[in-house]
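Researcher: First entry.
Model:
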Amino acid sequence: MEEQKAAIDALSAMGCYYYSISGGEPTLVKDLKERLRYASAKIPYVHLVTNGLLSEEKMVSEIVSTGIKEISISIDGTEKFHNALRGREDGFQKAFNTLKLYAAHSDKLQLTVNSILTKRSLSELRELRKMLDDFPGVHYKYLPLSVHELFQNDAGIDKAFPGNDASIDEMEAFLNEAAADDRNVNSKIFLKKAKLFFRGQEDILPEQKQCVYSYHAVEFGPDASVYPCRTGMNFASEISGKTDLKEFYSSAKCSNIQKELKSCKRCRNTMPLCYYEPRLNFPITNLVKYYFSK
Protein backbone atom coordinates (compact mmCIF):
# COMPACT_ATOMS: atom_id res chain seq x y z
CA MET A 1 0.00 0.00 0.00
CA GLU A 2 2.69 2.50 0.99
CA GLU A 3 4.72 1.78 -2.16
CA GLN A 4 1.65 2.22 -4.32
CA LYS A 5 0.77 5.50 -2.62
CA ALA A 6 4.34 6.75 -3.10
CA ALA A 7 4.17 5.88 -6.80
CA ILE A 8 0.80 7.65 -7.14
CA ASP A 9 2.21 10.74 -5.41
CA ALA A 10 5.16 10.81 -7.82
CA LEU A 11 2.96 10.27 -10.89
CA SER A 12 0.65 13.06 -9.76
CA ALA A 13 3.58 15.43 -9.25
CA MET A 14 4.81 14.63 -12.77
CA GLY A 15 1.39 15.42 -14.29
CA CYS A 16 0.11 11.88 -14.95
CA TYR A 17 -3.46 12.04 -16.28
CA TYR A 18 -4.49 8.38 -16.59
CA TYR A 19 -4.00 5.51 -14.11
CA SER A 20 -5.31 2.01 -14.84
CA ILE A 21 -5.50 -0.94 -12.45
CA SER A 22 -5.81 -4.43 -13.93
CA GLY A 23 -4.79 -7.96 -13.07
CA GLY A 24 -4.87 -10.78 -12.46
CA GLU A 25 -8.04 -9.66 -10.76
CA PRO A 26 -7.94 -6.42 -8.73
CA THR A 27 -11.12 -7.17 -6.73
CA LEU A 28 -9.16 -9.92 -4.91
CA VAL A 29 -7.29 -7.11 -3.13
CA LYS A 30 -9.06 -6.52 0.18
CA ASP A 31 -8.07 -2.84 0.50
CA LEU A 32 -8.80 -2.03 -3.16
CA LYS A 33 -11.32 0.64 -2.20
CA GLU A 34 -8.72 2.60 -0.24
CA ARG A 35 -6.19 2.33 -3.08
CA LEU A 36 -8.73 3.55 -5.64
CA ARG A 37 -9.83 6.42 -3.44
CA TYR A 38 -6.23 7.53 -2.96
CA ALA A 39 -5.47 7.33 -6.69
CA SER A 40 -8.66 9.25 -7.57
CA ALA A 41 -7.71 12.09 -5.23
CA LYS A 42 -4.35 12.49 -6.97
CA ILE A 43 -4.86 11.57 -10.65
CA PRO A 44 -7.72 12.92 -12.80
CA TYR A 45 -8.70 9.68 -14.62
CA VAL A 46 -8.58 6.34 -12.77
CA HIS A 47 -9.69 3.14 -14.54
CA LEU A 48 -10.37 -0.33 -13.10
CA VAL A 49 -10.48 -3.56 -15.18
CA THR A 50 -12.32 -6.57 -13.70
CA ASN A 51 -13.57 -9.99 -14.79
CA GLY A 52 -16.73 -9.40 -12.74
CA LEU A 53 -16.59 -12.70 -10.86
CA LEU A 54 -16.46 -11.32 -7.34
CA SER A 55 -18.57 -8.17 -7.49
CA GLU A 56 -21.60 -7.81 -5.24
CA GLU A 57 -23.85 -4.82 -4.69
CA LYS A 58 -21.92 -3.58 -1.65
CA MET A 59 -18.55 -3.84 -3.42
CA VAL A 60 -19.91 -2.06 -6.51
CA SER A 61 -21.28 0.83 -4.41
CA GLU A 62 -17.98 1.13 -2.56
CA ILE A 63 -15.92 1.17 -5.76
CA VAL A 64 -18.19 3.77 -7.40
CA SER A 65 -17.89 5.94 -4.28
CA THR A 66 -14.09 6.12 -4.65
CA GLY A 67 -14.43 8.64 -7.48
CA ILE A 68 -12.82 6.57 -10.24
CA LYS A 69 -13.85 7.50 -13.78
CA GLU A 70 -14.15 4.18 -15.60
CA ILE A 71 -14.86 0.47 -15.02
CA SER A 72 -14.11 -2.14 -17.70
CA ILE A 73 -15.67 -5.61 -17.47
CA SER A 74 -14.25 -8.46 -19.56
CA ILE A 75 -16.97 -10.27 -21.56
CA ASP A 76 -15.95 -12.10 -24.75
CA GLY A 77 -19.32 -13.09 -26.24
CA THR A 78 -22.55 -14.88 -25.37
CA GLU A 79 -22.81 -17.23 -22.41
CA LYS A 80 -21.63 -20.50 -24.02
CA PHE A 81 -18.72 -18.85 -25.83
CA HIS A 82 -17.53 -16.75 -22.87
CA ASN A 83 -17.71 -19.70 -20.45
CA ALA A 84 -15.78 -21.94 -22.86
CA LEU A 85 -12.99 -19.36 -23.10
CA ARG A 86 -12.87 -18.65 -19.38
CA GLY A 87 -13.20 -22.27 -18.27
CA ARG A 88 -16.05 -21.49 -15.86
CA GLU A 89 -19.70 -22.42 -16.14
CA ASP A 90 -20.73 -19.36 -14.14
CA GLY A 91 -18.33 -16.88 -15.78
CA PHE A 92 -20.78 -15.13 -18.08
CA GLN A 93 -23.62 -14.93 -15.56
CA LYS A 94 -21.38 -13.42 -12.91
CA ALA A 95 -19.83 -10.91 -15.33
CA PHE A 96 -23.23 -9.90 -16.72
CA ASN A 97 -24.67 -9.49 -13.21
CA THR A 98 -21.71 -7.23 -12.41
CA LEU A 99 -22.46 -5.24 -15.55
CA LYS A 100 -26.05 -4.74 -14.38
CA LEU A 101 -24.89 -3.57 -10.95
CA TYR A 102 -22.49 -1.00 -12.40
CA ALA A 103 -25.03 0.08 -15.05
CA ALA A 104 -27.18 1.43 -12.21
CA HIS A 105 -24.34 3.88 -11.54
CA SER A 106 -23.48 4.74 -15.16
CA ASP A 107 -24.28 8.41 -14.53
CA LYS A 108 -21.24 8.52 -12.23
CA LEU A 109 -18.63 6.71 -14.31
CA GLN A 110 -17.98 5.31 -17.77
CA LEU A 111 -18.81 1.62 -18.03
CA THR A 112 -17.04 -0.36 -20.77
CA VAL A 113 -17.21 -4.01 -21.86
CA ASN A 114 -13.81 -5.34 -23.01
CA SER A 115 -13.85 -8.15 -25.58
CA ILE A 116 -11.19 -10.17 -27.40
CA LEU A 117 -11.66 -9.96 -31.18
CA THR A 118 -10.73 -12.96 -33.33
CA LYS A 119 -11.98 -14.39 -36.62
CA ARG A 120 -13.94 -16.89 -34.53
CA SER A 121 -15.63 -14.42 -32.18
CA LEU A 122 -17.26 -12.12 -34.72
CA SER A 123 -20.79 -13.53 -34.56
CA GLU A 124 -20.50 -13.73 -30.76
CA LEU A 125 -19.60 -10.06 -30.51
CA ARG A 126 -22.53 -9.10 -32.73
CA GLU A 127 -24.86 -10.98 -30.38
CA LEU A 128 -23.21 -9.42 -27.35
CA ARG A 129 -23.66 -5.96 -28.87
CA LYS A 130 -27.41 -6.64 -29.22
CA MET A 131 -27.56 -7.64 -25.57
CA LEU A 132 -25.82 -4.42 -24.61
CA ASP A 133 -28.56 -2.41 -26.35
CA ASP A 134 -30.49 -2.87 -23.09
CA PHE A 135 -27.77 -0.78 -21.42
CA PRO A 136 -27.52 2.47 -23.43
CA GLY A 137 -24.92 3.90 -21.05
CA VAL A 138 -22.48 1.03 -21.64
CA HIS A 139 -19.57 1.36 -24.08
CA TYR A 140 -17.48 -1.41 -25.63
CA LYS A 141 -13.89 -1.93 -26.68
CA TYR A 142 -12.23 -4.62 -28.82
CA LEU A 143 -8.72 -6.07 -28.58
CA PRO A 144 -7.49 -8.23 -31.50
CA LEU A 145 -5.87 -11.40 -30.22
CA SER A 146 -2.15 -11.31 -31.00
CA VAL A 147 0.51 -13.99 -31.06
CA HIS A 148 3.30 -12.55 -28.93
CA GLU A 149 7.05 -13.19 -29.00
CA LEU A 150 7.08 -13.94 -25.27
CA PHE A 151 4.37 -16.60 -25.61
CA GLN A 152 5.31 -18.43 -28.78
CA ASN A 153 3.34 -21.54 -27.83
CA ASP A 154 0.08 -19.72 -28.59
CA ALA A 155 0.55 -19.85 -32.37
CA GLY A 156 -2.78 -20.82 -33.90
CA ILE A 157 -4.60 -20.04 -30.66
CA ASP A 158 -7.61 -18.94 -32.72
CA LYS A 159 -8.34 -22.63 -33.27
CA ALA A 160 -8.97 -23.07 -29.54
CA PHE A 161 -11.96 -20.73 -29.85
CA PRO A 162 -15.32 -22.37 -30.56
CA GLY A 163 -16.97 -21.43 -33.88
CA ASN A 164 -15.93 -20.86 -37.48
CA ASP A 165 -13.56 -18.32 -39.00
CA ALA A 166 -15.09 -15.13 -40.40
CA SER A 167 -13.83 -13.88 -43.76
CA ILE A 168 -11.56 -10.85 -44.08
CA ASP A 169 -14.47 -8.91 -45.63
CA GLU A 170 -16.66 -9.75 -42.63
CA MET A 171 -13.91 -8.65 -40.22
CA GLU A 172 -13.49 -5.35 -42.06
CA ALA A 173 -17.24 -4.72 -42.13
CA PHE A 174 -17.36 -5.31 -38.37
CA LEU A 175 -14.46 -2.92 -37.75
CA ASN A 176 -16.13 -0.27 -39.98
CA GLU A 177 -19.31 -0.60 -37.91
CA ALA A 178 -17.29 -0.21 -34.72
CA ALA A 179 -15.58 2.93 -36.06
CA ALA A 180 -18.99 4.47 -36.83
CA ASP A 181 -20.48 3.50 -33.46
CA ASP A 182 -20.40 6.21 -30.78
CA ARG A 183 -20.51 3.56 -28.08
CA ASN A 184 -17.24 2.01 -29.21
CA VAL A 185 -14.27 3.59 -27.41
CA ASN A 186 -11.47 2.25 -29.61
CA SER A 187 -9.87 5.07 -31.56
CA LYS A 188 -10.61 5.12 -35.29
CA ILE A 189 -6.88 4.89 -36.00
CA PHE A 190 -6.61 1.71 -33.92
CA LEU A 191 -9.58 0.12 -35.73
CA LYS A 192 -8.09 1.07 -39.10
CA LYS A 193 -4.82 -0.64 -38.14
CA ALA A 194 -6.79 -3.69 -36.98
CA LYS A 195 -7.94 -4.20 -40.59
CA LEU A 196 -4.29 -4.50 -41.64
CA PHE A 197 -3.69 -6.92 -38.78
CA PHE A 198 -6.48 -9.26 -39.88
CA ARG A 199 -5.28 -9.07 -43.49
CA GLY A 200 -1.99 -10.48 -42.22
CA GLN A 201 0.05 -7.41 -43.14
CA GLU A 202 3.57 -7.72 -41.79
CA ASP A 203 4.22 -4.14 -40.74
CA ILE A 204 1.04 -2.82 -39.15
CA LEU A 205 2.82 -0.24 -36.99
CA PRO A 206 5.49 1.27 -39.27
CA GLU A 207 5.62 4.43 -37.15
CA GLN A 208 6.61 2.26 -34.16
CA LYS A 209 10.05 1.59 -35.61
CA GLN A 210 11.19 3.94 -32.87
CA CYS A 211 8.91 3.02 -29.97
CA VAL A 212 7.89 5.93 -27.73
CA TYR A 213 5.81 3.92 -25.24
CA SER A 214 8.31 4.35 -22.40
CA TYR A 215 8.08 8.15 -22.79
CA HIS A 216 4.36 8.37 -22.07
CA ALA A 217 3.69 5.30 -19.92
CA VAL A 218 5.00 3.29 -16.99
CA GLU A 219 3.87 -0.09 -15.66
CA PHE A 220 3.99 -1.63 -12.18
CA GLY A 221 4.18 -5.32 -11.38
CA PRO A 222 2.29 -6.96 -8.48
CA ASP A 223 5.38 -6.53 -6.29
CA ALA A 224 5.40 -2.78 -7.17
CA SER A 225 8.45 -3.16 -9.44
CA VAL A 226 8.70 -0.36 -12.00
CA TYR A 227 8.75 -1.07 -15.76
CA PRO A 228 8.96 1.67 -18.40
CA CYS A 229 7.62 -1.26 -20.49
CA ARG A 230 7.13 -4.74 -19.01
CA THR A 231 7.19 -6.45 -22.40
CA GLY A 232 10.29 -4.58 -23.58
CA MET A 233 12.07 -5.40 -20.32
CA ASN A 234 11.11 -9.08 -20.70
CA PHE A 235 9.05 -8.90 -17.49
CA ALA A 236 12.29 -8.49 -15.51
CA SER A 237 12.78 -5.14 -13.81
CA GLU A 238 15.83 -3.98 -11.89
CA ILE A 239 13.77 -1.17 -10.35
CA SER A 240 11.92 -1.89 -7.11
CA GLY A 241 8.78 -0.27 -5.75
CA LYS A 242 10.90 1.47 -3.14
CA THR A 243 12.52 3.56 -5.89
CA ASP A 244 11.73 7.27 -5.83
CA LEU A 245 9.85 7.42 -9.13
CA LYS A 246 10.40 11.11 -9.81
CA GLU A 247 14.12 10.70 -9.11
CA PHE A 248 14.26 7.62 -11.35
CA TYR A 249 12.70 9.48 -14.29
CA SER A 250 15.35 12.17 -14.10
CA SER A 251 18.18 9.61 -13.89
CA ALA A 252 20.65 8.45 -16.53
CA LYS A 253 19.50 4.87 -15.88
CA CYS A 254 15.95 5.69 -16.97
CA SER A 255 17.19 7.58 -20.00
CA ASN A 256 19.31 4.59 -21.05
CA ILE A 257 16.34 2.19 -20.66
CA GLN A 258 14.15 4.47 -22.77
CA LYS A 259 16.81 4.65 -25.49
CA GLU A 260 17.16 0.85 -25.52
CA LEU A 261 13.40 0.39 -25.70
CA LYS A 262 13.17 2.71 -28.71
CA SER A 263 14.56 -0.05 -30.91
CA CYS A 264 12.62 -2.87 -29.19
CA LYS A 265 10.58 -5.00 -31.63
CA ARG A 266 8.68 -7.25 -29.25
CA CYS A 267 5.31 -5.68 -30.03
CA ARG A 268 5.80 -5.40 -33.78
CA ASN A 269 3.13 -7.11 -35.86
CA THR A 270 0.78 -7.24 -32.87
CA MET A 271 -2.07 -4.92 -31.86
CA PRO A 272 -1.12 -3.47 -28.44
CA LEU A 273 -3.86 -1.19 -27.12
CA CYS A 274 -1.32 0.32 -24.74
CA TYR A 275 0.74 1.77 -27.58
CA TYR A 276 -1.99 3.73 -29.31
CA GLU A 277 -4.95 4.35 -27.07
CA PRO A 278 -3.53 6.35 -24.14
CA ARG A 279 -2.04 8.92 -26.53
CA LEU A 280 -5.15 9.14 -28.71
CA ASN A 281 -7.84 9.01 -26.01
CA PHE A 282 -5.91 11.32 -23.70
CA PRO A 283 -4.43 13.89 -26.10
CA ILE A 284 -2.48 17.07 -25.42
CA THR A 285 -5.67 19.02 -24.68
CA ASN A 286 -5.73 17.11 -21.38
CA LEU A 287 -2.50 18.83 -20.45
CA VAL A 288 -4.39 22.13 -20.60
CA LYS A 289 -7.30 20.70 -18.58
CA TYR A 290 -4.89 19.31 -16.00
CA TYR A 291 -3.05 22.62 -15.72
CA PHE A 292 -6.23 24.57 -15.03
CA SER A 293 -7.54 21.93 -12.60
CA LYS A 294 -4.47 22.65 -10.48
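Researcher: Second entry.
Model:
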Amino acid sequence: MSADLRPVKRTGPVGRYAPSPTGDLHLGNLRTALRAWEDCRRRGGTFILRIEDLDPPRTVPGAEARMIEDLRWLGLDWDEGPDAGGPAGPYRQSERGAIYQAALDELTRRGLTYPCVCSRRDLREASAPHGEAGEPVYPGVCRSADPERLARHPGGAAVRFRLPDDAVIEFEDAAAGPQRFDLNRLCGDFVIRRRDGLWAYQLACAIDDALMGVTHVVRGADLLTSTPRQIAVLRALGLPVPSYCHIPLVADEAGRRMCKRDGSCSIRALRAAGQSADEVRRIIMQARLVDVENG
Protein backbone atom coordinates (compact mmCIF):
# COMPACT_ATOMS: atom_id res chain seq x y z
CA MET A 1 0.00 0.00 0.00
CA SER A 2 1.29 3.46 -0.91
CA ALA A 3 2.35 5.76 1.92
CA ASP A 4 -0.20 8.22 0.53
CA LEU A 5 -2.98 5.77 1.43
CA ARG A 6 -2.22 5.29 5.12
CA PRO A 7 -4.94 6.71 7.39
CA VAL A 8 -3.86 9.24 9.98
CA LYS A 9 -3.62 7.68 13.43
CA ARG A 10 -6.54 8.73 15.62
CA THR A 11 -7.89 8.15 19.09
CA GLY A 12 -11.59 8.73 19.66
CA PRO A 13 -14.45 9.67 17.34
CA VAL A 14 -13.94 11.91 14.31
CA GLY A 15 -16.72 13.75 12.46
CA ARG A 16 -16.70 16.08 9.50
CA TYR A 17 -18.65 18.57 7.44
CA ALA A 18 -17.68 18.77 3.76
CA PRO A 19 -19.40 21.54 1.80
CA SER A 20 -18.78 22.44 -1.84
CA PRO A 21 -17.95 26.11 -2.60
CA THR A 22 -20.54 26.41 -5.37
CA GLY A 23 -22.55 29.17 -3.72
CA ASP A 24 -23.73 30.45 -0.35
CA LEU A 25 -24.92 27.93 2.22
CA HIS A 26 -28.70 27.56 2.49
CA LEU A 27 -30.74 26.30 5.43
CA GLY A 28 -30.51 22.69 4.28
CA ASN A 29 -26.71 22.83 4.16
CA LEU A 30 -26.63 24.44 7.58
CA ARG A 31 -28.93 21.85 9.13
CA THR A 32 -26.55 19.13 7.99
CA ALA A 33 -23.59 21.08 9.34
CA LEU A 34 -25.29 21.56 12.71
CA ARG A 35 -26.29 17.91 12.99
CA ALA A 36 -22.78 16.72 12.07
CA TRP A 37 -21.16 19.16 14.50
CA GLU A 38 -23.54 18.35 17.35
CA ASP A 39 -23.10 14.60 16.82
CA CYS A 40 -19.32 14.93 16.94
CA ARG A 41 -19.24 17.25 19.96
CA ARG A 42 -21.67 15.00 21.83
CA ARG A 43 -19.23 12.13 21.32
CA GLY A 44 -16.32 14.28 22.47
CA GLY A 45 -14.69 13.82 19.08
CA THR A 46 -12.49 15.72 16.64
CA PHE A 47 -14.42 17.74 14.07
CA ILE A 48 -13.06 18.41 10.57
CA LEU A 49 -14.07 20.97 7.96
CA ARG A 50 -13.22 19.73 4.46
CA ILE A 51 -13.80 21.75 1.30
CA GLU A 52 -15.02 19.60 -1.59
CA ASP A 53 -13.91 21.73 -4.52
CA LEU A 54 -13.38 18.95 -7.06
CA ASP A 55 -15.07 20.77 -9.94
CA PRO A 56 -13.32 24.09 -10.73
CA PRO A 57 -15.94 25.26 -13.29
CA ARG A 58 -18.64 25.09 -10.58
CA THR A 59 -16.55 26.73 -7.85
CA VAL A 60 -17.74 30.26 -7.06
CA PRO A 61 -14.96 32.75 -6.21
CA GLY A 62 -15.13 33.77 -2.57
CA ALA A 63 -17.66 31.06 -1.66
CA GLU A 64 -15.27 29.19 0.63
CA ALA A 65 -14.50 32.29 2.70
CA ARG A 66 -18.22 33.10 2.96
CA MET A 67 -19.06 29.56 4.04
CA ILE A 68 -16.43 29.65 6.77
CA GLU A 69 -17.68 33.04 7.96
CA ASP A 70 -21.30 31.83 8.01
CA LEU A 71 -20.47 28.65 9.92
CA ARG A 72 -18.47 30.54 12.53
CA TRP A 73 -21.23 33.16 12.87
CA LEU A 74 -23.67 30.33 13.50
CA GLY A 75 -21.47 29.10 16.36
CA LEU A 76 -19.75 26.12 14.77
CA ASP A 77 -16.08 25.43 15.27
CA TRP A 78 -13.70 22.76 14.02
CA ASP A 79 -10.43 21.27 15.14
CA GLU A 80 -8.98 20.78 11.66
CA GLY A 81 -9.63 22.42 8.33
CA PRO A 82 -8.25 24.63 5.56
CA ASP A 83 -7.96 27.58 7.93
CA ALA A 84 -6.89 25.57 10.98
CA GLY A 85 -4.46 23.00 9.60
CA GLY A 86 -4.09 19.56 11.12
CA PRO A 87 -2.41 16.18 10.65
CA ALA A 88 -4.69 14.97 7.83
CA GLY A 89 -4.33 17.88 5.44
CA PRO A 90 -4.61 19.29 2.93
CA TYR A 91 -8.28 19.92 3.64
CA ARG A 92 -9.25 21.13 0.15
CA GLN A 93 -9.91 18.36 -2.33
CA SER A 94 -8.39 20.47 -5.10
CA GLU A 95 -5.04 20.02 -3.30
CA ARG A 96 -5.32 16.23 -2.85
CA GLY A 97 -4.88 15.06 -6.44
CA ALA A 98 -1.71 13.06 -5.71
CA ILE A 99 -3.58 11.10 -3.04
CA TYR A 100 -6.44 10.26 -5.41
CA GLN A 101 -3.93 9.24 -8.07
CA ALA A 102 -2.26 6.88 -5.59
CA ALA A 103 -5.67 5.31 -4.89
CA LEU A 104 -6.42 4.97 -8.60
CA ASP A 105 -2.99 3.41 -9.22
CA GLU A 106 -3.57 0.87 -6.46
CA LEU A 107 -7.04 -0.03 -7.75
CA THR A 108 -5.61 -0.40 -11.26
CA ARG A 109 -2.79 -2.59 -9.96
CA ARG A 110 -5.45 -4.86 -8.48
CA GLY A 111 -7.32 -5.07 -11.79
CA LEU A 112 -10.30 -3.09 -10.50
CA THR A 113 -10.44 -0.27 -13.07
CA TYR A 114 -10.77 0.17 -16.81
CA PRO A 115 -10.96 3.12 -19.21
CA CYS A 116 -14.34 4.06 -20.65
CA VAL A 117 -15.10 6.31 -23.61
CA CYS A 118 -18.90 6.14 -23.37
CA SER A 119 -20.63 9.51 -23.18
CA ARG A 120 -23.99 10.19 -21.60
CA ARG A 121 -25.40 10.47 -25.10
CA ASP A 122 -23.99 7.04 -25.94
CA LEU A 123 -25.75 5.55 -22.93
CA ARG A 124 -29.03 7.26 -23.78
CA GLU A 125 -28.90 6.03 -27.35
CA ALA A 126 -28.09 2.53 -26.15
CA SER A 127 -31.22 2.68 -23.99
CA ALA A 128 -29.24 1.82 -20.90
CA PRO A 129 -31.47 0.29 -18.22
CA HIS A 130 -32.30 2.27 -15.10
CA GLY A 131 -31.48 0.97 -11.67
CA GLU A 132 -33.22 0.91 -8.31
CA ALA A 133 -32.60 4.62 -7.77
CA GLY A 134 -33.81 5.63 -11.24
CA GLU A 135 -30.33 6.32 -12.63
CA PRO A 136 -28.84 4.63 -15.69
CA VAL A 137 -27.06 1.34 -15.03
CA TYR A 138 -23.80 1.18 -16.96
CA PRO A 139 -24.14 -1.77 -19.36
CA GLY A 140 -20.41 -2.56 -19.46
CA VAL A 141 -19.74 -1.46 -23.04
CA CYS A 142 -16.03 -0.80 -22.45
CA ARG A 143 -15.48 -3.50 -19.82
CA SER A 144 -13.86 -6.00 -22.19
CA ALA A 145 -12.44 -3.59 -24.76
CA ASP A 146 -8.71 -3.09 -25.32
CA PRO A 147 -7.71 -0.61 -22.57
CA GLU A 148 -4.75 0.73 -24.52
CA ARG A 149 -6.97 1.56 -27.48
CA LEU A 150 -9.55 3.22 -25.23
CA ALA A 151 -6.88 5.26 -23.46
CA ARG A 152 -5.88 6.75 -26.84
CA HIS A 153 -9.44 7.89 -27.62
CA PRO A 154 -9.32 11.50 -28.94
CA GLY A 155 -12.15 12.55 -26.64
CA GLY A 156 -10.37 11.21 -23.58
CA ALA A 157 -11.41 8.32 -21.38
CA ALA A 158 -13.04 8.15 -18.00
CA VAL A 159 -11.98 5.48 -15.52
CA ARG A 160 -14.59 3.11 -14.08
CA PHE A 161 -14.46 0.96 -10.96
CA ARG A 162 -14.91 -2.69 -11.93
CA LEU A 163 -17.56 -4.33 -9.74
CA PRO A 164 -17.42 -8.02 -8.86
CA ASP A 165 -20.29 -10.30 -9.88
CA ASP A 166 -21.54 -10.19 -6.30
CA ALA A 167 -21.54 -6.51 -5.41
CA VAL A 168 -24.10 -6.44 -2.61
CA ILE A 169 -23.28 -3.84 0.05
CA GLU A 170 -25.05 -3.89 3.41
CA PHE A 171 -24.70 -1.39 6.24
CA GLU A 172 -26.65 0.04 9.13
CA ASP A 173 -27.57 3.68 8.76
CA ALA A 174 -28.10 5.56 12.04
CA ALA A 175 -31.07 7.45 10.59
CA ALA A 176 -32.40 5.29 7.75
CA GLY A 177 -31.90 1.88 9.34
CA PRO A 178 -30.61 -1.31 7.67
CA GLN A 179 -29.53 -0.81 4.05
CA ARG A 180 -28.86 -3.30 1.27
CA PHE A 181 -27.75 -2.34 -2.23
CA ASP A 182 -26.83 -4.48 -5.21
CA LEU A 183 -24.47 -2.17 -7.07
CA ASN A 184 -24.79 -4.14 -10.28
CA ARG A 185 -28.51 -3.30 -10.25
CA LEU A 186 -28.15 0.18 -8.76
CA CYS A 187 -25.55 1.69 -11.11
CA GLY A 188 -23.14 -0.84 -12.58
CA ASP A 189 -19.44 -0.06 -12.87
CA PHE A 190 -19.18 3.58 -11.81
CA VAL A 191 -16.85 6.42 -12.75
CA ILE A 192 -14.02 7.29 -10.38
CA ARG A 193 -12.23 9.70 -12.71
CA ARG A 194 -14.04 11.74 -15.33
CA ARG A 195 -13.17 12.04 -19.01
CA ASP A 196 -11.96 15.60 -18.43
CA GLY A 197 -9.46 14.33 -15.87
CA LEU A 198 -11.35 15.57 -12.81
CA TRP A 199 -11.76 13.22 -9.88
CA ALA A 200 -15.20 11.78 -9.24
CA TYR A 201 -16.93 12.39 -5.94
CA GLN A 202 -17.28 8.67 -5.16
CA LEU A 203 -13.51 8.14 -5.12
CA ALA A 204 -12.43 11.41 -3.52
CA CYS A 205 -15.00 11.41 -0.72
CA ALA A 206 -14.37 7.78 0.19
CA ILE A 207 -10.59 8.18 0.25
CA ASP A 208 -10.73 11.42 2.23
CA ASP A 209 -13.01 10.02 4.91
CA ALA A 210 -10.79 6.97 5.36
CA LEU A 211 -7.43 8.73 5.31
CA MET A 212 -8.59 11.58 7.55
CA GLY A 213 -9.69 9.00 10.11
CA VAL A 214 -13.38 9.94 9.99
CA THR A 215 -15.41 7.51 12.08
CA HIS A 216 -18.89 9.06 11.80
CA VAL A 217 -20.38 10.62 8.66
CA VAL A 218 -23.54 12.70 9.04
CA ARG A 219 -24.86 13.96 5.69
CA GLY A 220 -28.03 14.48 3.67
CA ALA A 221 -30.32 11.63 2.66
CA ASP A 222 -29.75 12.50 -1.01
CA LEU A 223 -26.32 10.87 -0.67
CA LEU A 224 -27.59 7.56 0.68
CA THR A 225 -27.10 5.76 -2.64
CA SER A 226 -23.55 7.10 -2.88
CA THR A 227 -22.60 5.27 0.30
CA PRO A 228 -22.50 1.70 -1.08
CA ARG A 229 -20.24 2.86 -3.90
CA GLN A 230 -17.88 4.50 -1.44
CA ILE A 231 -17.91 1.44 0.80
CA ALA A 232 -17.02 -0.72 -2.23
CA VAL A 233 -13.99 1.46 -2.98
CA LEU A 234 -12.84 1.41 0.65
CA ARG A 235 -13.19 -2.35 0.95
CA ALA A 236 -11.30 -2.86 -2.30
CA LEU A 237 -8.39 -0.89 -0.84
CA GLY A 238 -8.61 -2.41 2.64
CA LEU A 239 -9.37 0.99 4.17
CA PRO A 240 -11.62 1.60 7.20
CA VAL A 241 -15.32 2.27 6.61
CA PRO A 242 -16.99 4.92 8.80
CA SER A 243 -20.45 4.75 10.32
CA TYR A 244 -23.13 6.63 8.38
CA CYS A 245 -26.15 8.72 9.26
CA HIS A 246 -28.20 10.16 6.37
CA ILE A 247 -30.61 12.80 7.64
CA PRO A 248 -33.75 14.18 5.93
CA LEU A 249 -33.40 17.27 3.74
CA VAL A 250 -34.93 20.71 4.31
CA ALA A 251 -37.82 21.71 2.03
CA ASP A 252 -38.25 25.10 0.39
CA GLU A 253 -41.54 27.01 0.28
CA ALA A 254 -42.76 24.82 -2.59
CA GLY A 255 -42.07 21.65 -0.64
CA ARG A 256 -39.03 20.71 -2.71
CA ARG A 257 -35.60 20.07 -1.30
CA MET A 258 -33.42 23.15 -1.10
CA CYS A 259 -30.52 23.52 -3.51
CA LYS A 260 -28.05 26.29 -4.26
CA ARG A 261 -28.89 26.59 -7.94
CA ASP A 262 -32.48 27.53 -7.10
CA GLY A 263 -31.37 30.37 -4.85
CA SER A 264 -32.93 28.69 -1.80
CA CYS A 265 -32.94 30.76 1.38
CA SER A 266 -29.37 31.48 2.47
CA ILE A 267 -28.01 32.32 5.87
CA ARG A 268 -26.77 35.59 4.39
CA ALA A 269 -30.31 36.64 3.56
CA LEU A 270 -31.41 35.90 7.13
CA ARG A 271 -28.43 37.78 8.53
CA ALA A 272 -29.20 40.74 6.30
CA ALA A 273 -32.78 40.68 7.61
CA GLY A 274 -31.47 41.12 11.14
CA GLN A 275 -31.87 37.56 12.43
CA SER A 276 -29.54 36.57 15.26
CA ALA A 277 -27.49 33.36 15.23
CA ASP A 278 -29.77 31.82 17.86
CA GLU A 279 -32.84 32.69 15.79
CA VAL A 280 -31.32 31.21 12.66
CA ARG A 281 -30.41 28.00 14.46
CA ARG A 282 -33.98 27.71 15.70
CA ILE A 283 -35.32 28.29 12.17
CA ILE A 284 -32.98 25.63 10.82
CA MET A 285 -33.91 22.98 13.35
CA GLN A 286 -37.66 23.68 12.99
CA ALA A 287 -37.58 23.70 9.18
CA ARG A 288 -39.91 21.51 7.15
CA LEU A 289 -38.28 18.32 5.94
CA VAL A 290 -38.79 16.45 2.69
CA ASP A 291 -38.37 12.85 1.61
CA VAL A 292 -35.67 12.48 -1.06
CA GLU A 293 -37.95 10.32 -3.22
CA ASN A 294 -40.55 13.08 -3.28
CA GLY A 295 -38.16 16.01 -3.42
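Model: Note on the second entry: The first helix runs from residue 27 to 42.
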